[in-house]
């Protein structure tokens, strides 16, 4: 298993030097988020991740969760680690102090979650899902609900889930069959079966708070008739603690390709007592509140696992001796050269590095926007909301596609050893693979981006971002070292708009043009977005080198990686542009029978 | 698990209509390989694959091979299936009748192996490795060795292995440490430990014939001191059957990401009795005899698993109801439309179909070349050898890269269900992943193609293929329906040569340019090669339609898929060209320390 070390230097580069989180924190009046405090949290957090949960990653994959007659047992050590997590107050980091939280900025929580995900993604699902449920309760719950549930979840004494999918519907939630019947006491009786419920049943907490999408018997058809309910595994007793068992049970757990330490459950509701949260028939809207956050988190799964894979591959590449460099022996005293001398191995490592660091920059930019959602002025809040709405599907899909590529490169660097489970490299591929599927498949993200966000706003949300890029390019058009890259980015930024107009026009005649273009459009967008962030990093690196502020090797590496990104990865935009321009015709010619050949 | 049906229609399209195997068979004087006989073998072979080994694929993955104190137990049913395989005479298909074979053309054996690989790749490793060992014995063994070993392997009573890799070397075989000490009786005593030995130990045959690379104590350093030895698990007794146990033992088996039903063994030789095969110190050459065949087979792994994945994904896409078509309901009587109506799902299916059918054409073209290796004239044999030398690394790497992409698309079509093991779609990804690593990593294939084959022959081997493409384009430059595609291919064919010249020039100044360009050069080549085969298929399809020879839907689908390939996949050449042209500089800037950030 690669030994994960939190990339604190790179994290601080973004937090301190590129985005200046501290200025934002100061402006928010987040007095506790001083630079020292932030550093202390990252340091302490990294220790928890490296020392407590990372060592459980391989064993968790081998043991998997076990199911026996409704009871789910998590892999050895998971429960104890969660207790340490609770004791350390880690769940409360970004929670409102009213409900027992520390009130630190959301961005800080996201940084911590990156380290958790890199160390042990499966374990991280339990607190992760809990945070999602907490966000929904915080946004839509009554004060009473918040006191009853949120406080206990903040203490990590109770955990949470999101129950959306049923066997016959995932994407198409309008089809759900779970029914909620109003009861005399104001509660609801829920009946139905949900699948793919992460953390749906386990042995790590005293209670599990399910947030369940269901329909009232007389609800409008489709998505407009969906309501959201709190259905706890144990109903809160008179003392507020977990009391009587509710009619909620785990029917089975799934056997999966990866994230095997995460319990993926069938959860059955059999006249279970539930409580409406938010407005009747507005359940999907409530879910969408947290969807952006969850999708950003899922996008980061690509970064998290990509980072660990990179660390493993780099170590192996410097230690494994095989063949000589084509330009002559580099380690003549050894039997062969370390494989990092070979250009093709470097190509893989640099691809990994360029995606990881670029994806990290994109993630942290979004993390800052999460903070800005709580800014003082409506204008600032709206700007953050628009940028997040636009960037979220890109984060989710682009970062997971590239994350999967990165983890596959990491395996490849190991040669045949990459296929052997003990090395841990193949687990990262398997753990990453789900990220392209859940929280809305990447195809759905692409439709969300192109159809709903970009064309649905008549291009406004796109322009909100391209404007940033345009200004940045304009300001640096004469940059002494990076002029060529800025010109390249400016050209792509313009093409992005032109391509959008072209698809928009075509879609007015034929709606299938949106579906035909969506995935390539999203990937095109992702490459341009990352080019923007690579130049933001490069500009800072160049400044630091010129200022002679030390750490020159680090900044030189940033510049070299930016150079690699522009030369070897950004050209992929050409293919995605061709994909967008290819139109729907070549896709729609065949009948279903003809596909069978 | 997707229910595999051998794609006999598509196989016959290539065999009968595109490549006309029968003409070749007739010319070879392979009298038994009449069209009827070929059809009968494909029909019977497909039944064995579909009914006997396909049903063991999922269970084999779940059970894995078990190791207990040197004994390896294969998954339930594997042994019995192998007995049926032996009883059916399937191992003897393409073997020389002198050693008990049926003497059918090699190409026919390859077609059968496609069906085996699609049905149960892990099971297919046992006969597959045996065939590799048989090829080496046939090519380099003495008559006595052939009688002793080959006849029993032909009967599938004994199986074989290839023992190359050691813990510290895979690519760099010059470093091997296994020693062979000459004995008074003319045999050798072998001592050493080999890893990653597929089928190294198991319960399916009476004996296991290891072909082992080792060095004599006084052997020259590096690869020039490697010899090849036959080391049977049981030494042949006076009756020729398996007799006394040799000092060969299985130390452990690997826990792997996929092909879990295939036993991957550590094999220890402890003064084991071995017999030289071929010349002393020419062991690597002997191994390379069968390497081309093995690499072609590994390339086909991408096709095999891609085909099964496609069949599964297509079935799911026609049955799964989710959302409505953007152009209006297509199944208004159902709760939602089958997902095959969505352009983005079709994009995935067509990508799978285009790669599978293109890769199949490439494979069968090579299969024909395998036959041509035994042609009457030296000129024909040389032509086949040159084309195979050139196409083999492309088959191995391009078909496995695209096969992995295909199996990943297949999973993606299933949404979240794709991640669940019961569906069998994720197993295909895992089983495919090894193909990019073993038999020489794809990076090594790329170096072999660009460095050894293309530049090493001063471009001769490349021109051998581009000449075919050129003539074909010239002959069809005015093709009424396919003119545009022919122009596109002709342009790329020319670019291929220009790109090669450019890299060759750069490499003369700096050998790292080869390594920097190799992978992108191979992928560029692969896309052009497949474009050539897609047009060969399209031309035939167009002729058949015009001749009104029936089955128009099949031929229309070929044309539509060719159209898709040219519009949406072939543009990827742009990126790979950019990768080749990017040069080595952006790869070589960073020190090993700087990679760590």
From TrEMBL, chains A, B:
Residues 465-590 form the Acetyl-CoA dehydrogenase-like C-terminal domain. Residues 281-448 form the Acyl-CoA dehydrogenase/oxidase C-terminal domain. It catalyses: 3-(methylsulfanyl)propanoyl-CoA + oxidized [electron-transfer flavoprotein] + H(+) = 3-(methylsulfanyl)acryloyl-CoA + reduced [electron-transfer flavoprotein]. Residues 162-271 form the Acyl-CoA oxidase/dehydrogenase middle domain. Keywords: FAD, Flavoprotein, Oxidoreductase. Its EC number is 1.3.99.41. One of its GO terms (molecular function) is flavin adenine dinucleotide binding. It comes from the Bacteria. Residues 40-155 form the Acyl-CoA dehydrogenase/oxidase N-terminal domain. Its cofactor is FAD. The keyword Transcription does not apply. InterPro entries: Acyl-CoA_dh-like_C_dom, Acyl-CoA_Oxase/DH_mid-dom, Acyl-CoA_Oxase/DH_mid-dom_sf, AcylCo_DH-like_C, AcylCo_DH/oxidase_C, AcylCoA_DH/ox_N, AcylCoA_DH/ox_N_sf, AcylCoA_DH/oxidase_NM_dom_sf. The keyword Flavoprotein applies. Involved in the assimilation of dimethylsulphoniopropionate (DMSP), an important compound in the fixation of carbon in marine phytoplankton, by mediating the conversion of 3-(methylthio)propanoyl-CoA (MMPA-CoA) to 3-(methylthio)acryloyl-CoA (MTA-CoA). Belongs to the acyl-CoA dehydrogenase family. This is 3-methylmercaptopropionyl-CoA dehydrogenase. It comes from Pseudomonas turukhanskensis.
């Amino acid at each position: 298993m690669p030994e994960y070390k939190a990339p604190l230097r790179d994290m601080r580069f973004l937090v301190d030097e590129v985005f200046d989180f501290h200025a934002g924190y100061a402006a928010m009046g987040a007095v506790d988020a001083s630079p020292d405090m932030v550093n202390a949290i990252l340091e302490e957090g990294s220790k928890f991740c490296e020392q407590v949960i990372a060592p459980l990653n391989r064993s968790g994959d081998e043991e998997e969760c076990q199911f026996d007659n409704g009871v789910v047992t998590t892999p050895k050590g998971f429960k104890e680690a969660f207790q340490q997590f609770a004791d350390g107050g880690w769940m409360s980091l970004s929670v409102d102090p009213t409900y027992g939280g520390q009130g630190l900025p959301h961005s800080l929580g996201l940084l911590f979650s990156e380290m958790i995900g890199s160390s042990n993604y499966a374990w991280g699902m339990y607190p992760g899902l809990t945070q999602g449920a907490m966000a929904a309760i915080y946004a839509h719950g009554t004060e009473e609900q918040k006191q009853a549930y949120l406080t206990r979840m903040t203490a990590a004494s109770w955990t949470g889930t999101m129950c959306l999918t049923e066997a016959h519907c995932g994407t198409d939630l309008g089809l759900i069959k779970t029914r909620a019947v109003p009861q005399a006491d104001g509660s609801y009786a829920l009946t139905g079966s949900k699948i793919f419920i992460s953390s749906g049943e386990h042995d790590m907490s005293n209670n599990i708070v399910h947030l369940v999408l269901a329909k009232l018997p007389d609800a409008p058809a489709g998505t407009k008739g969906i309501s959201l309910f709190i259905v706890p595994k144990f109903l809160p007793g008179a003392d507020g603690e977990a009391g009587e068992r509710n009619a909620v049970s785990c029917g089975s757990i799934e056997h999966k390709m990866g994230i095997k330490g995460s319990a993926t459950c069938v959860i059955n509701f059999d006249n279970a007592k539930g409580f409406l949260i938010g407005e009747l028939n507005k359940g999907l809207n409530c879910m969408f509140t947290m969807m952006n956050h969850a999708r950003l988190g899922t996008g980061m799964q690509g970064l998290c696992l990509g980072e660990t894979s990179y660390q493993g591959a780099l170590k192996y590449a410097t230690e494994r001796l095989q063949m000589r460099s084509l330009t002559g022996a580099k380690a003549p005293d050894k039997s062969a050269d370390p494989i990092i001398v070979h250009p093709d191995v470097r190509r893989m490592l640099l691809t990994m590095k360029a995606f990881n660091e670029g994806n990290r920059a994109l993630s942290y930019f979004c993390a800052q926007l999460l903070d800005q959602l709580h800014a003082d002025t409506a204008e600032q809040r709206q700007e953050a909301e628009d940028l997040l709405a636009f960037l979220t599907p890109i984060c989710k899909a682009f970062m997971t596609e590239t994350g999967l590529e990165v983890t596959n490169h990491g395996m490849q660097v190991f040669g045949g050893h990459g296929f052997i489970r003990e090395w841990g490299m193949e687990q990262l591929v398997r753990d990453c693979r789900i990220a392209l599927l859940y929280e809305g498949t990447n195809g759905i993200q692409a439709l969300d981006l192109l159809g709903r966000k970009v064309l649905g706003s008549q291009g406004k949300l796109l322009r909100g971002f391209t404007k940033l890029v345009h200004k940045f390019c304009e300001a640096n058009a004469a940059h002494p070292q990076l002029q060529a890259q800025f010109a390249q980015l400016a050209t792509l930024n313009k093409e992005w708009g032109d391509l959008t107009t072209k698809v928009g026009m075509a879609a007015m005649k034929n709606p299938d043009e949106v579906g035909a273009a969506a995935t390539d459009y999203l990937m095109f967008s992702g490459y341009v977005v990352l080019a923007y962030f690579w130049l933001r990093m490069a500009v800072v690196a160049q400044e630091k080198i010129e200022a002679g502020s030390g750490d020159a090797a680090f900044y030189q590496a940033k510049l070299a990686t930016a150079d690699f990104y522009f030369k070897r990865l950004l050209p992929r935009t050409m293919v995605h542009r061709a994909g967008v321009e290819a139109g729907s015709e070549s896709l729609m010619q065949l009948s279903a029978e003809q596909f069978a050949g």
